[in-house]
Design brief:
The protein has seven helices and 16 strands. By secondary structure, the protein is α/β, with parallel strands linked by helices. The protein is globular and about 50 Å long.
């Protein structure tokens, strides 16, 4: 490959196509328009994640919550890569090892100084790197420290760092454990994700991560159905999924899986409840469908 590998490094890399000039057109859904009175802040339909999240030229983006964080991380990274941004993806918790099509280069190294040095020397070559500290078995990777994310941000050549800062074991909803989420202090944007497929499901171990915590935050008893009010509380409560967000960070709520039957209606119900609670940092609610194109169905703003 024409570069030197440190002897202790464990590196996986894949051959990728030459990156495409310009961003491919992502069509918008045809079903745009205004929502009901509680959501009169609808701006309209968006197609790209970059637009929907309101990204700036340089960002440290921390993803928290449940119901699509890893998918969002790699979809956004691909979109930014195609627009010629230089991107680093990582986690401060644990993630599944990326597939070959999800990243241009995976570096696994226990020495965070070597990770930083590698990123400095090779980001221009690969333009999208994923970094982790170790392989844990069962296809999982151990994340890096929040301190390394802050150090990487000091490298001016990185345009965007995307950090999966929370875990949910594949559930659509969650409440954070005592030490979660692990959000780097340099985060300029925090995106909290919940899957709208959680609405109407009974609150238990199968449908939720940390159901006891969800019950404590929302007042919904174990075994009772999750409601849009409960989902909004998970987004806005001080002990909810935005817990520990730096006061300087912009905040976006991302409601994923709106492509399920009745998903858009459910998402708009949750969005209305979120805005009613007047969270001081939430600037918009994105209605997402990350398994489809375009990945964004609609973006809603408060009145």
């Amino acid at each position: 490959m024409g570069f030197h590998m440190e002897p202790d490094q464990k590196i996986i890399f894949s051959i990728v196509k030459k990156f495409i000039k310009g961003v491919p057109h992502l069509s918008s859904l045809a079903s745009g328009g205004k929502a009901g009175p509680a959501l009169s802040g609808v701006e309209g339909v968006k197609g790209t994640l970059r637009e929907a999240l309101g990204l700036r030229e340089r960002e440290v983006i921390s993803l928290v919550g449940a119901g699509g964080k890893t998918t969002l991380m790699y979809c956004l990274a691909k979109e930014l890569f195609l627009s010629r941004k230089r991107v680093v993806t990582t986690t401060t918790t644990k993630i599944l090892e990326p597939k070959l099509e999800e990243t241009n280069f995976l570096l696994v190294d226990s020495d965070e100084r070597r990770i930083k040095d590698f990123v400095w020397r090779h980001l221009d070559q690969y333009r999208h790197l994923t970094v982790a500290r170790a392989r844990l078995g069962l296809g999982k990777l151990e994340g890096v420290s929040a301190g390394l994310v802050n150090d990487l941000w000091s490298l001016d050549k990185i345009d965007t760092i995307i950090v999966e800062a929370d875990g949910a074991a594949g559930r659509p909803v969650k409440a954070p454990r005592e030490w979660e989420p692990v959000i780097p202090t340099t985060s300029t944007l925090v995106v909290a994700i919940l899957g709208v497929d959680g609405v109407g499901k009974k609150l238990n171990e199968e449908s939720a991560f940390q159901p006891e915590g969800i019950s404590r935050i929302t007042g919904i008893a174990i075994g009772e159905k999750l409601s849009d009010e409960g989902m909004a509380l998970l987004m806005t409560h001080a002990e909810g999924i935005f817990k520990g967000t730096p006061s300087s960070s912009r905040v976006v709520a991302f409601l994923n899986k709106v492509d399920i039957p009745d998903g858009v209606r459910k998402a708009k119900g949750i969005a209305g409840k979120i805005f009613e609670k007047e969270h001081s940092q939430i600037e918009r609610v994105v209605l997402g469908q990350l398994k489809n194109e375009p990945p964004v169905a609609e973006v809603i703003f408060p009145v």
